[in-house]
């Protein structure tokens, strides 16, 4: 069991509370606004985060840490052996993305002079591409997907489409559908992500896809 110092606990509490606040307000608040909303002194917050950029990054890295734990747990406890399992997996990932939607969209849209962050995002993309290839391979072996998808000239554009839909829907939601409840929009986004697989479904895969309820 991990133990944290009082300072670490305070810092983690600020990260979680401000993440929730940014999501609710849908905007980057001033230091004074954050202090009032959290009932903390401004200096208490800036003591841990001298710049707003550092605060946004802290929230984003908290998301990355939470996502890593989710992926490890999913890998250990669940095997993707049907499109129903795949749909449930994406649904859980989307729920996590929604929980950190403001910081994720901010980092993706606003350029940051942080070489370490850019390197981290690039390495994360590479790792996700390997994980996706393994998932596709498994579905091909199960007779759900056509093995053509494993070829580079198919897999590379598929990865581009898949990755963009799975990550940038949070931006689309905030830009276009923010007035709609997430529960109403989630099935639409979820189906859009799974539609990436449509051109490569076998008859078995098509039968499973038609049976999905979004």
**Sheet having the most strands:** none
**Low-pLDDT segments:** none
Total beta-strand segments: 0
Instruction: Give the termini separation.
Output: 38 Å
Gyration radius over CA? 19 Å
H and E string: HHHHHHHHHH
Note the beta-strand portion.
under 5%
User: Which geometry do the CA atoms define?
Assistant: elongated
Output the number of helix runs.
10
Instruction: Give the domain tally.
Output: 2
Mean of the pLDDT scores? Answer: 91
Please bin the fraction of helical residues: over 70%
Briefly note the structural class of the backbone.
mainly alpha
InterPro entries: Homeodomain-like_sf (IPR009057), TetR (IPR025722)
Protein name: TetR/AcrR family transcriptional regulator
Pfam family, one: TetR
Question: Helices and strands in order, then pairings?
Answer:
Elements: H1 6-25, H2 31-38, H3 42-46, H4 52-77, H5 83-99, H6 101-109, H7 115-141, H8 152-176, H9 182-194, H10 203-210
Notes on the protein architecture:
The chain is elongated, with a radius of gyration of 19 Å. The mean pLDDT is 91. The protein has two domains: 1-50; 57-210. The chain is mainly alpha-helical and 214 residues long. It contains ten helices and no strands. Helix 8 (152-176) packs antiparallel against helix 9 (182-194).
